[in-house]
Design a protein that fits this description.
By secondary structure, the chain is an alpha/beta fold. Helix content is 42%, strand content 17%. The chain has three domains: 42 residues, Orthogonal Bundle (434 Repressor (Amino-terminal Domain)), CATH 1.10.260; 127 residues, Rossmann fold (3-Layer(aba) Sandwich); 134 residues, Response regulator (Rossmann fold), CATH 3.40.50. The protein has twelve helices and 14 strands.
Length: 339
């Protein structure tokens, strides 16, 4: 009878997870234990399930991951790391593995596409990417399935939240529930498509209702994180003797900086100004006051991207639009209040 990883674990008196780490050269396993495991599986002729499946198939059951360094967003970014984790869990349940795409193997420099060919990946997941990244442009124009939760580019099947719906919901709340008149926006860096879409939705909301937009009530964060929000809020304070009653902030990370800036300047939230962020990352529940925000369902976004990528891998005739928008919702906490 064919041995399983559990048989190997029992025979060596080790945990199955230790056997897996030793075979895949991952995790905290001593060199001595790894050698013991590898010597034993060679002796008994054990073939890991994934390797056996690869021998029977033209697929590698590996998905390449792009986390572009050009965007200056690290893996610690709460929103994108959440997407990656949910994507990973979904594909692993279906027997696929993730492998980060790098541009150098040893002394050899490779494009993303060359790396994918070298590693025989079945498809690619772009977590976040830059529009000037040649590697991504090349991938989008090659015959390889590519999905993303971020980048909008012909040839990439992207699953994003409905940014316009999110901004509309937030503004409807400020106007109809909070009865606010002076409403502004701290936009995210406008070279990022999602932030530009949110900014354009903000402008469109007022223009479609014949309402002039006070440009002094709009400031752009120069980064994706705390410092960008703090500095943009300081700019808005300098520009306005009469401050907005409500602010839409393009992301929760930026909103944390805005909240701190308002606190440092003695501007009370929600008494003096109400705030609605965007994303609903974990920190939104931990700020003081707790942040009201537009919730992007990262589980839905990542799993929808994963399911469609696997469908594309397994069915070459499968067709889906390049842009696929998913619904959002408003989460009310302590930075807003109704009148």
């Amino acid at each position: 009878m064919k041995k399983t990883i559990y048989d190997i674990a029992e025979e060596l008196n080790l945990a199955p997870s230790t056997i897996s780490k030793a075979i895949n050269n991952t995790g905290n396993v001593s060199a001595k234990t790894r050698k013991r495991v590898l010597d034993y599986i060679k002796e008994v002729g054990y073939v890991p399930a994934n390797s056996a499946r690869m021998l029977r198939s033209t697929r590698s059951y590996t998905i390449g991951v792009v986390f572009s360094e050009e965007t200056n967003i690290g893996l610690e970014h709460t929103f994108f790391s959440s997407l990656l984790e949910h994507f990973k869990k979904y594909v692993e349940k279906l027997g696929y593995e993730l492998s980060f795409i790098v541009t150098q193997l040893g002394t050899n420099k490779l494009s993303y596409y060359e790396w994918c060919i070298n590693k025989k990946v079945d498809g690619v997941y772009i977590v976040v990417g830059g529009y000037s990244d040649y590697g991504i442009i090349e991938l989008a124009n090659k015959n390889i399935p590519v999905v993303s939760n971020d980048i909008l580019m012909k040839g990439v099947k992207t699953f994003i939240c409905d940014n316009k719906q999110g901004i509309d919901i937030a503004l409807d709340y400020f106007i109809n529930k909070s009865k606010l008149n002076r409403i502004g926006m701290i936009a995210g860096p406008l070279n990022a498509k999602a932030f530009k879409m949110r900014y354009e939705a903000f402008i469109s909301y007022f223009k479609s209702r014949g309402i002039d937009v006070n440009q002094n009530y709009i400031c752009e964060s120069k980064s994706f994180v705390f410092n960008g929000g703090y500095e943009a809020c300081e700019e808005m304070i300098r520009k306005n003797k009469v401050f907005p009653e409500g602010l839409i902030v393009a992301s929760d990370d930026i909103a944390v900086g805005v909240l701190r800036c308002l606190y440092d300047h003695g501007i009370k939230v929600p008494e003096d100004v109400q705030i609605i962020g965007f994303d609903d990352i974990n920190i939104a529940k931990l700020t003081t006051p707790k942040l009201s925000t537009i919730r992007q369902d990262t589980t839905l976004m990542a799993e929808t991207a994963a399911a469609n990528l696997i469908r594309m891998i397994e069915d070459s005739e499968y067709e889906i639009p390049d842009i696929n928008e998913l619904p959002v919702s408003l989460v009310l906490r302590e930075t807003t209040r109704e009148k």
